[in-house]
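As a warm-up, study this chain.
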Amino acid sequence: MAAAISPATVAIMVEGVQGEGGVTPATPEYLLGLRRLCDENKLLLFMDGVQCGHFRTGRFQSFQRILEDRPNTFLPDGISMAKSLGAVFLSAPFGCGRHTRTCLARELMEQHSAVHRWRVR
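Now compare it with the structure written out below.
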């Protein structure tokens, strides 16, 4: 993953569980390594919870299931939860972690508020 980072890279988005061709969860080491890589390169780390979020793994988000033996060791900067809540990506919640003040989701909501009748505070 480190080799794919360029000066134009601002974020990495990863699914906790890959569903194409079977069910393949990420390892704890992989997720923790991505967090470290993003921190070292000042990148945002987003979790895609569209397919495997919202309790589909027995926990609210897949990373919580994957890292259940290592609580409080991992927090993504954002989580997409569209399909698991029955909506589309731009109109779905996108939770923010440590970078709430610079969250891209707020910009998305502001840009699309007229279309989706959101009230952004």
